[in-house]
Specification:
By secondary structure, the chain is mainly β. The chain has strands at 3-7, 10-13, 18-25, 32-39, 46-51, 57-59, 67-72, 77-82, 91-99, 115-116, 120-125. Helices cover 0% and strands 50% of the residues.
Length: 126
């Protein structure tokens, strides 16, 4: 049984930082493409950052230079370091995983992934 469990969400002021974690069981991250998504109230779930199975990374434009996705294969844990947070980053953040090779163009698409965490709330106040 595959489980992805996020942690690290919370409330911060604008300009602050948070690090999200996503621990996996039942799969081995090193053989998967992984990603972070977020969903704000009334909006579609959007891809924020992803790591392809070859280790390359991709970011949504609004988070480039502020967010960093990384993965510790020994701990089978995915991370999202979020710096310089803004109120518009407020959302529920989800981790996701997909086995096999994923085309670069598909890494930030919701439909690419078949394993999802339960989500963790991030709230940024101005």
């Amino acid at each position: 049984q595959v489980q992805l469990v996020e942690s690290g969400g919370g409330s911060v002021q604008s300009g602050g930082s948070l690090r999200l974690s996503c621990a996996a069981s039942g799969i081995t991250y090193s053989a998967y493409s992984t990603a972070w998504f977020r969903q704000a109230p009334g909006k579609e779930r959007e891809g924020v950052a992803a790591i392809a199975s070859d280790g390359s990374t991709i970011y949504e434009d609004s988070v480039k230079g502020r967010f960093t996705i990384s993965q510790d294969n020994a701990k089978n844990t995915l991370y999202l370091q979020m710096n310089s947070l803004k109120p518009e980053d407020t959302a529920v953040y989800y981790c996701a995983a997909r086995g096999g090779r994923v085309g670069w163009w598909a890494l930030l698409l919701r439909g690419t992934y078949n394993y999802w965490g339960q989500g963790t709330q991030v709230t940024v106040s101005s």
